[in-house]
Hints:
Number of strands: 12
Number of domains: 2
Strand content: 15-25%
Largest sheet: 7 strands, parallel
Radius of gyration: 20 Å
Amino acid sequence: xxxxxxxxxxxxxxxxxxxxxxxxxxxxxxxxxxxxxxxxxxxxxxxxxxxxxxxxxxxxxxxxxxxxxxxxxxxxxxxxxxxxxxxxxxxxxxxxxxxxxxxxxxxxxxxxxxxxxxxxxxxxxxxxxxxxxxxxxxxxxxxxxxxxxxxxxxxxxxxxxxxxxxxxxxxxxxxxxxxxxxxxxxxxxxxxxxxxxxxxxxxxxxxxxxxxxxxxxxxxxxxxxxxxxxxxxxxxxxxxxxxxxxxxxxxxxxxxx
Length: 257
């Protein structure tokens, strides 16, 4: 892993970034930097927007009119791996945790899926996006994962790109080595990891998934995992076998090449 500055405060801003530009901060960001982190005018931080790479900046102005003065670029923008994470929603804090870990594990799109035995029928996508941004800020990630609107499982399967391989994590699957099963997925293929609810998948849902092309059904070992734990386990296995853990450059490329 390349050397990285983990000590400087890192902030996502939804504004174009270039050397010499000024970026106005909203009230929440100004409060966070000045009151929570106690930064003062002239203090340095790193900023990114998911499009223009990462830049050094310095805080200017006061609490009510805080600005960032952008300096030099520290990292070029990279392209996210084509990895989607589809999941049955969880309640509040556990959903927060799962979203953060999925982002840390390289998911580029988060897709809530309503299944038969799903215990949650509403999803706060704004809160999900806030957790995506927080995870990206804390972990040095340059891309902001897309947060999709919730879909039913039938609609998800109907709208999914036929070329995308779905790694279907099923607690009813035989507890065989998932690494062997994933070997069937071509290298570089677009991927989606699908995790069901704590109540499991209904039999008709399993049948619908089995009828779709490019589906790999795997178990995650001999133990029953909570859904948020299963997210980390599944994404770890996928990244190790067919994801960006197996490349020298971290699976990312600059937008120029």
